[in-house]
Amino acid sequence: MTQYILALDQGTTSSRAILFDHAGRPHASAQQEFRQLFPQPGWVEHDSNEIWSSQLAVLQQLMRDSGVAASDIAAIGVANQRETTVLWDRATGEPVANAIVWQDRRNAAFCEQLLAQGKAQSIQQKTGLVLDAYFSATKLKWLLDHVPGARARAERGELAFGTIDTWLIYKLSGAHITDTSNASRTMLFNIHTLQWDADLLALLEIPASLLPDVLPSSGVAAHTHAALLGVPVPIAGIAGDQQAATFGQACLQPGMAKNTYGTGCFMLMNVGKQPLPSKNRLLTTVGWSLSEARGSTDYLLEGSAFIAGAAVQWMRDGLGIIRDSSEVEALATSVPDTGGLVFVPAFAGLGAPYWDPYARGTLIGITRGTGKAHIARAALEGVAYQNVDVLSAMQDDAGIALSELRVDGGAARNDMLMQFQADILNVPVVRPVVTETTALGAAYLAGLAVGFWDSEEEIASQWQVARRFEPAMGADERLARLHKWQRAVDRSRDWSAGS
């Protein structure tokens, strides 16, 4: 009898593998970090082969250390960092260049050209996305235009494109596929027809032969090569990491929302079975499509802040004020407040609702009394402030006042950050027992497809609260703090205007 679902959670800074039991509890896990490459200011790349080797390594380590046999695994679910773009040779399986990471801003000027040409509205109508260098389409165009011979080879059908889910599944099985959630993040996919859009391909000069087949997020999509685990195992769940986390948080009804505190912050709200256009520059995205037998697609509103956990990494690696990321909470709580310091973590521009690629990280209010603890506290508060802007836009778009915000991701374990988030949002923040919700969501999608779990209702019943953070800040203080935050955001955006 199969006892587990295996989730592969390929993130921006590390690859993980986790086994989940029938109760949705992690049984065993393995994790490995990999290199971040910054060849020029604003450029972020990954070695695609290193992503694959790290994911394979943790998979093999997990199987070895847990003592679980491949025959005990009912299915595999894949969750992945989204928008990151890989282009490879179909014959050799070798990438033709480094992957361009979702954080990369090299195409900001090209996006401005498209904006000037009046393309933004039609792109948003078709894809639900704001015209921005964040998404895969312009990254793929850049590779075709700048890697020697790539465009000609693509037109001859010799190359394949994929986001990280597609790349991993290709290496695991040989199949060239993606799911609707990841396809909806490329800026090449029509979220109304659930198909690649010929007009967008023509606009960006992208040959259709590059593209993977689009399948439901839940359904047997491929089987692993027998040599990998000893027997072929079905790959039955695929979702971009934030959609997977939303599913893992059991936000299965309209109006339910979660926020993931990973490298960036990603807030998503379920808006039901029809895409809801945003008036406030949020993204409308496919959440997940269940198999044809279940026959439904859920849509989400999404707002993202590009920098969250990455701000803590910067304090560790760039400033050296902490040795390990786990030290940041103790450092931040060693002072009662920030001493008037406000930190806007716009290292890679500002995401929703501003979409300003030229904004830059800003630290305002430094005095002779400012110490590293004040910087640490201001950085954590800055992460939380960003989410106020997103939630305000989201509630306005959806016409729904949020009753609670479910949270996950590494920084969701930080009690100081979660309490400040509840205070500054004026909404209860709820942390679940299982915080590995990205991997759990991928596992749930895979398990539904093979009958490991029977229904979405069964999944929702497994979600449990670990801790609830209630707002405790007075209204006057909240408004004063938000006013100060907004002034700091304006300064961070002025940086490019004055340069």
Layout of helices and strands:
Layout: E1 4-10, E2 14-20, E3 26-33, E4 45-46, H1 48-66, E5 73-80, E6 86-89, E7 99-100, H2 108-116, H3 120-127, H4 136-146, H5 150-155, E8 159-162, H6 164-173, E9 177-179, H7 180-183, E10 189-190, E11 195-196, H8 198-203, E12 213-215, E13 218-223, H9 226-229, E14 234-240, H10 241-248, E15 257-261, E16 265-272, E17 283-289, E18 297-305, H11 309-319, H12 328-332, E19 342-344, E20 362-364, H13 372-398, E21 405-408, H14 415-425, E22 429-432, H15 437-450, H16 456-462, E23 465-469, H17 475-497
Parallel strand pairs: 1-5, 5-14, 9-12, 15-21, 21-22
Antiparallel strand pairs: 1-2, 2-3, 4-7, 6-8, 10-11, 13-14, 15-16, 16-18, 17-18, 19-20, 22-23
Helix pairs in contact: 10-15, 11-13, 13-14
Explain what this protein looks like in three dimensions.
The chain has 499 residues and is α+β, with helices and mostly antiparallel strands. Helices cover 37% and strands 23% of the residues. It contains 17 helices and 23 strands. It has a 7-stranded mixed sheet with strand order 17-18-16-15-21-22-23. Strands 3-2-1-5-14-13 form a 6-stranded mixed sheet. Helix 13 (372-398) packs across helix 14 (415-425). The mean pLDDT is 92.
The mean pLDDT is 92
Proportion in β-strands: 15-25%
Largest sheet: 7 strands, mixed
Strand segment tally:
23
Could you give the order of strands across the largest sheet?
17-18-16-15-21-22-23
Distance between the amino and carboxyl termini? 64 Å
State the low-pLDDT regions, or none. Answer: none
* Rg over CA atoms: 22 Å
**Helix run count:** 17
Structural class: alpha+beta
Proportion of residues in helical segments: 25-40%
